Amino acid sequence: MAACSSNSNMRREEQTEEKKKAREKSAKKRSKEEGDEGDEGEEIFSFKDKAAVDEEEDDDLSDSEDSVYSGLEDSGSDSDDEDDDDKDDNEEEEEEEDGSGNEDEEEDLKTETQQTGQTEQKKTTTMKKKKEGKEVTEEEKVNEYEHDSSDEEDIRNTVGNIPMEWYKDFPHIGYNLDGKKIYKPIRNKDELDEFLDKMENPEYWKTIHDKQTGRDIVLSDEQVDLVNRLQRGQFGDVNFNEYEPTVEFFTSDVMIHPVTNRPADKRSFIPSLIEKEKVSKMVHAIKMGWIKPRRVEDDSKGRYYDLWTGEDSSLVAKHKMHLPAPKIPLPSHQESYNPPPEYLFTDEERALWDQQDPSDRKLPFVPRKFSSLRQVPAFPRFIHERFERCLDLYLCPRQRKMRVNVNPEDLIPKLPKPKDLQPFPTTQSLVYRGHTGLIRSISVSPSGQWLASGSDDGSVRIWEVCSSRCMKTVQVGGAVKSISWNPNPAVCLLAVAVESVVLILSPSLGDKQVISATERLLSGQQEAETTEGEGPVSWIETEGEELNQGIHLKIQHAKAVQQVAWHAKGDYLASVMPDHSSHLQVLIHQLSRRRSQNPFRKNKGLVQCVSFHPIRPYFFVATQRCIRIYNLVKQEMTKKLQANSKWISSMDVHSSGDHVICGSYDCRLGWFDLDLSTKPYKMLRHHKKAVRGVAYHRSYPLFASASDDGSVIICHGTVYNDLLQNPLIVPVKVLKGHEITHDLGVLDVTFHPTQPWVFSSGADATVRLFT
Amino acid sequence: MSQLQARFFTENKRYIVDDVPFSIPGGSEVQDLTNCLNKLFFFKIDFFDFLVRGQFLRTALSTHMETEGISTEEVVEIEYVERITAPEPEECMMHDDWISAVHADAEWILTGSYDKTARIWSVEGKPVMTVAGHTEVVKDVTWVKRDGLTSLLLTASLDQTVLLWEWNSERNKVKARHCCRGHTGSVDTVSTDPTGTKFCSGSWDKMLKIWSAVPTDEADEVEEPGDRPRKKQKTQQLGLTRTPLMTLSGHNEAVSSVLWCDSEEVCSASWDHTIRVWDIETGVMKTTLTGSKVFNCISYSPLCRRLASGSTDRHIRLWDPRTKDGSLVLLSLTSHTGWVTAVKWAPLHEHQLVSGSLDNLVKLWDTRSCKAPLYDVAAHEDKVFCVDWTENGLMLSGGADNKLYTYRYSACQTDAGA
After folding, report:
1. Mutate which of B116, B251, B337, B339 to disrupt the A interface (most A C-beta within 10 Å)?
2. Which chain A residues touch B157 with a CB distance below 8 Å?
3. Of B67, B82, B97, which one is at a domain's C-terminal end?
4. Range of the domain at B161
């Protein structure tokens, strides 16, 4: 009952409301506003109202029976009330009629009110019927139901307790007691309306939507107050005192007389035989082993359980890096109660100790001597010391240092041993002596039988490779800057750059048919020669002594020619005239048609050397800092290699055409992988002085560099066919032999075409063969 | 030093001692052993050399046995032979230019020179004849046949021809009989077969060609390219044109040296690092011996049936040309410091060979002493290009100092004694 008190309170509240309404109905001089308010209240708590009405109806029914027997009479004032009530009801009805007429939109409301009106009408009619005799009883009935706590539903809508979404698609929302449809409000509020409402309607916050009827109900202040009280956990009734004094039923004092005077049962002091039997059965069962007695928990280990057993292993793993605290050093002689006298402080030491800052002291205490252990007092600094220890442990972070153990051996790249990379030239075999000036350029015939060298003494010499025999000497009348053997094996030709002339020289060595073919080629184009306008160069036929020496053609350039380079087919010849200011630095000559052309329109820098691609129509031009690769067919630049060096001196193209090495005056040798990057794949800095010449071997994976430090360095450079594998570059041999003359060492280097042999020419006027 | 049990023996009947083991000190060297023998003979001879298991004794006996892995427990068999005496220089024949080739027989010496001529000298060193005709450097020369006073000789030249000459020693007239055309490169080597009827030439053009060495009076037909000027050809013609009987191709690089193993077999060395043995009957290659370096020269000794090769890596290697399965180096003789340009087996001694090198030295080797040569002959002042022996005790070498040296060597005492 007490538990339900709040509930009943609530009900009571409601009922007071109902009572209020009933009073309204009975119209005890209420103002119009109040009536309005009551109207609203009716709307809000419609189901209560309904219930009340229902009850009234029920009452009416019961009334009709009860009233007969009750025989209770009411005062006349009541009947007056009733009359008033009726009148009021009628008024109300009228009003509502009016309201419905005014507010067409709220049809539902109208029907509702109509309905209530009807019921009220009915009620009034019944009441009118009973009015004559039983007016008083009616009044009492109403009062009786004021306390009724029945929890009835709102039955204005008869659909029952169902999800109202079921009616979502219908125009109505249910059926009233008469089975007529209760229609939804015509216009539903959409989000915008809702929002506007929220913003503009000051009563929005106390408006609730009744799903059952589909109407919005605005709570009255009392109702809001009630809700607030309930939310606060207070009683709904303001007047309810929850702290009423208790009325004790029994006293706490022991009285002399018991509450009951019944004597105690016999069984309360005689042991129970039934229980005894049960116990003996169980004992027997235990003895027989049918029942196992409950195992006694072993307490020997202590009833403490390991808090961390079920711990996640990852958590444990986190603490793997745990470092044990460093141990305190064991007490030494100084800590002894009876230390050897040398540990005891002298006066000076003591004075010093006193003066020192505690952090500077060598010892945190003063060694003291006691005659016996018994006399040692308690250690005064014990707490202090422990605290400091704790601070040490806590404030000094300990961490494990991960020392990276790098084996210095591992840092050295894994390169094959040079002896596994045989063959490569290792020793000096032959020295070609005869020149009197420094030899700037050498070239080997495509067959590998002859070697041509051009020197500053104004001569070109042709040597037999295998015997170092000078087979021919041609005086060209000027320092030979560059010499190049025609790579076409069907002709035997040399291009020699002397000052501003390029000489085409037939050494008349080797196969007679080749020689005659060469001569036919050189003399044959006399007819084919077309007289062009004044070109950049002039082709001059030689006669007399020069012709006897083998010089067939002279290509007169405007400026000094630094380099000549043949195309792989042997018909085209490129010559280089380095010049800062002119675009006329490189010329390409066609031997068979005796034509020359300047492939470049712009000056892109001082051209150092040029080279033809061995297979494709590409042309490599090395300027001071970079190498440009031109496509001769499309006449455009395809690539620009950054040499990463200050001044390129020489360049060579691999026989596959995909790799370029270039030497520079700043002691470097750069290897470019054209498929890889425009930056050098590898820079080798083995030379001490300027690199003068570089060369690839045509078939062996070798390349060589010649330098002013008098050495030739042979490197192994395997090129792989698959693009994934980078070239393997291993320096294999330093070849020394040339003497350094006038700060110049080795000036040119070239490989034998078929053997792993390298020729080098130096400033000491010799050519050397290393095998 | 411990004592060793040794037993001396020899095949030379003049110096036989009793077959009794002696106890000799382990540290004894050649001189000690010689003294030991002298005590047995009761007279003094000091030209013995000692062989332990076929190797010359060059150090103390015990160390020698240690390095050779011979047990010191047993009785050591020590063979003693007369020491090969140092070759004595005899003559020096000056040429006008580098000497590229030399071939000597019992009476005459034939040399080829870079002055485009070949020369005939008597063994005493007198110039007899200058054979001029080539337009380029003569690279190789060889005697073909001697028929009384008439000799046939061959000169191979850089001008791509081999000339077959007939030389009458009495009238001292030389006549070019045939001009062997066909090579398209410098002919570097030429060699006649043992019967003197055929010869083989090797050239820079990678070909070997077999020619007939019999002089005839009619020229072979040569199909000339039509556009070649005919008058030029006329002037060049020297002797009747001869075409090769057979061309053997297979080398990938220049052929540096050819020789006949016997009348059916030609052996060629090349710059492509191979030695190939060819069957002349069928013209096919029989065996390939693969080395690792360029071969400059080969020589074959019918006495020991070994091939000696000199290559650019300074080693002289001995091969067995009859091995079918690839290349097997029997022995390496290493002492030269330059390319070995010439190597020649002794005609009468199965163990001796001579080699010439670019390091200006001629070395006399005994295969029983492979660690070091018997003698270094340091006569030349420049590169040595050619060496030769004669059967009558003459050794020759020529080189880039234009000098042809002859040396008298002790003519094979072992054979003489046997």
Report:
1. B339
2. none
3. B82
4. 88-215+237-408
